[in-house]
Amino acid sequence: MTRIPEDDRDIFEKAIFLPMVLTILNRDLSAIETAGFKLKKPYLHLLEHTMKKVQKDLYTIKLQMKKKNMKVWEKQRDEAFTLFSFMYRGYEEEHNYFNPRIRNEVQQLLESYFVENSTSE
Predict the structure, then answer these.
(1) Per-residue model confidence as pLDDT tens for the chain (121 residues)
(2) Which residues contact 72 (CB under 8 A, 6 or more apart)?
(3) Within 13 Å, how many C-alpha atoms sit on residue 45's CB side?
(4) Strand 81-88 versus strand 70-77 pairing type
(5) Interatomic CA distance for residues 98 and 106, integer angstroms
(6) How far apart, in whole angstroms, are the C-alpha atoms of residue 99 and residue 46?
(7) C-alpha dihedral (55, 61, 62, 63), degrees to nearest 10
(8) Model's pTM, two decimal places?
(9) Domain extent listing, the chain
């Protein structure tokens, strides 16, 4: 049984997933820069704009975590699962995440940022 309310658990999960989104965007940025695209600029602009939005959201998440005395760190990883420790108001809880679920969550976040970028311009 978890002591962490659902909205605070969402903050923990964003603190886990948003850095992964940034890692993927950085790799994609490098791949596009070296790829043989005729028109690289629109792709680079999309990725850079998305990265700025993700960084801004991550900054907000980190501020919320600091205000609520929340910390998260990865404890261990294997082929199937990743174990994270959540420190919440003096209590420590361990949460195990199925790696394909992490991948799906990161993919959904990435898609939502891309859709958000395409509708805001």
Answers:
(1) 678 999 999 999 999 999 999 999 999 999 998 988 888 999 999 999 999 999 999 999 999 999 999 999 999 999 999 999 999 999 999 999 999 999 999 999 999 999 887 676 5
(2) 12, 15, 16, 65, 84, 85, 86, 87
(3) 7
(4) antiparallel
(5) 13
(6) 27
(7) 110
(8) 0.90
(9) 6-120
